[in-house]
Structure formats: C-alpha cells, structure tokens
Amino acid sequence: MGECIFCRIAKGELPCYKLYEDDNTMALLDIFPVHPGHALVMPKKHTTDIFDTDEETARQMIAAAKKIAPAVMKATKADGINIGMNNREAAGQEVFHAHLHVIPRYKDDGLKAWHKNLFKDEKQKQEVHEAVKRELAA
Ligand code: 5GP
Ligand code: ZN
C-alpha cells in the first residue's frame, strides 16, 4: 500500500500536525476538522478498518485516543468529545487506513452524527438481536 496517504504520513513522507506518537500509533490533527482540535488516531502499520485490525492494534489505538482525548478537551475548552470510527464507504470512510476520530464538541454546536429512534418495531429488534447473537456464536 505504497500510496496510502496515512502510511505516508506515518513514515514522515507527508507533513501533518502531529500531536502524539509511540511505537505503534500516531495522533494528528484532521486536515478538515469538524472543530479545531479534531484529531485522528491511527496505527503506524497499515490496516484498512475495524475488520482487519487485530485486537492488540485496536487496543493501542484506544489507548492513544484515551491519552489525547483529555488533552484535546482541555486545550480546546470543549464540553465533550466524540470518539468514532468510520468503517467502509457506506459508513463514511474516505481514507482506507484505520483511524479513530477524536472530535471536540460544544453545548448546542448543532452537530448531529445520526438520527435515532427510526426503528421501533419490536419484532425487528428481536430478529436482529437473534441474528447478531448467531453470528457471535458462529
Ligand atoms: P474518514 O471519513 O475516512 O473516517 O476520515 C478521514 C479523515 O481524514 C477526514 O476527516 C479527512 O478530513 C482527513 N484527512 C484526509 N486526508 C488527510 C491528510 O492528508 N491529512 C490529514 N491530517 N487529514 C486528512
Ligand atoms: Zn496505510
């Protein structure tokens, strides 16, 4: 994946506003932030999304996000922080190198990540509950 933009950033081939790095992860400012301080946490080694990211790498990403979230929160005087991950194009993923978003949020900033409570049918809840549990047991 020589052309992967985040691999190139991780190798220092492309510039970024780096916030943090350790042996396995790097955190940097998002180039098109939702709010100033919007950060990305990525593994230095290439994985595509949650599905091909091994557990240890996922732990390292969460540990780095946990480290930078309070710093972003204080530095930006945010009221809250969203931590999220887009996986696959349908979920809004645009850069196909796994990463977490760490996004400062403010009271009444008007951002809505998603609409809730669209599906109220109990039978549908029971069916999806069973279907996911079947997959977990497979
Ligand atoms: P995704 O939609 O894949 O979850 O998020 C990708 C994020 O990466 C976007 O928020 C986008 O603004 C950011 N981004 C894309 N290209 C670059 C880049 O070259 N440098 C930095 N710092 N962020 C980038
Ligand atoms: Zn990559």
Q: Count the helices. How many? A: 3
Identify the CATH homologous superfamily: HIT-like
Rg from alpha-carbon coordinates: 17 Å
- As laid out across the biggest beta sheet, the strand order is 1-2-3-5-4
Q: Major β-sheet, in short?
A: 5 strands, antiparallel
Query: What is the tally of beta strands?
Result: 5
Secondary structure: helix percent: 25-40%
Please write the string of helix (H) and strand (E) elements.
HEEEHEEH
Report strand %.
15-25%
> Unreliable segments (pLDDT under 50, ≥5 consecutive)?
none
Number of domains: 1
- The CATH topology, please? HIT family, subunit A
User: Mean pLDDT, as a whole number?
Assistant: 96
The assigned CATH architecture is: 2-Layer Sandwich
